[in-house]
């Protein structure tokens, strides 16, 4: 494509380094915030699920992560209620009509489009109690609602391709968020936080941590 090797390498380093760092720096505090505010009952449920499955599977493996229904739902709910990058921009490549529940908007080719993803992820016509963090929202039949979770500039049920503008790290973001929950609740039973807001996202300060008294990190096999 006419890009010099050093320029291409610099862009890849930016993508893998700052871009990922910036995204996780916004996402992880939000995830901890919502789980922390949910309280000790949810913490106990997460700890029970995570520890029992890790024990049964012989470690923190991809198979184990896939069986953690509550953990998966909690991650999706955090992404729904507080998308790490809520604003999206793009120019229309062709004339189009965008439909909402009760209106239609004509967009001309070349016009700049601004998207605010929480309009979709907190739509009261789609989600019950959209402003409330519901840890079990995406369990069981609730998985069908993932098509309305737009944190990645696309539906959670879709995959990024070279033809769309969906986040190419979408699946990695979800995986790392699950791993973070797993590693945390293998070590701790519950915690308390103090949270605030930053220019981009949430800030979280741990006020207390209750350790899991029998945790032995040497006995756990991890994803490699």
Largest sheet: 2 strands, antiparallel
- Rg over CA atoms, rounded to whole Å, is 20 Å
Secondary structure tally, helices:
6
What structural class is derived from the secondary structure elements?
A: alpha+beta
Strand order of the largest sheet: 1-4
Oligomer: single chain
- Apparent shape: globular
> Quick check: average pLDDT?
91
Order of helices and strands: HHHHEEEEHHEE
Strand content: 15-25%
Give the termini distance in whole angstroms. 34 Å
Query: Fraction of residues in helices?
Result: 40-55%
InterPro entries: Cyt_P450, Cyt_P450_E_grp-IV, Cyt_P450_sf
Family: Belongs to the cytochrome P450 family.
GO molecular function: heme binding; iron ion binding; monooxygenase activity; oxidoreductase activity, acting on paired donors, with incorporation or reduction of molecular oxygen
Cofactor: heme
List the helices and strands and how they pair.
Layout: H1 5-38, H2 40-57, H3 62-66, H4 69-81, E1 87-91, E2 96-99, E3 104-107, E4 112-116, H5 118-121, H6 170-187, E5 188-197, E6 202-211
Antiparallel strand pairs: 1-4, 2-3, 5-6
Helix pairs in contact: 1-4, 2-6, 4-6
Keywords:
iron, heme binding, two-stranded antiparallel sheet, 224 residues, alpha+beta, iron ion binding
What does this 3D model show about the protein?
With 224 residues, the chain is α+β, with helices and mostly antiparallel strands. The protein has a domain at 16-84 and 130-211. Helix content is 41%, strand content 17%. It has six helices and six strands; from the N terminus they run ααααββββααββ. The strands form three sheets. The chain has a two-stranded antiparallel ribbon. A two-stranded antiparallel ribbon has the order 2-3. The chain has a two-stranded antiparallel ribbon with strand order 5-6. Helix 1 packs across helix 4, helix 2 (40-57) crosses helix 6 (170-187) and helix 4 crosses helix 6. It is globular, with a radius of gyration of 20 Å. The model has no long low-confidence stretch (mean pLDDT 91).
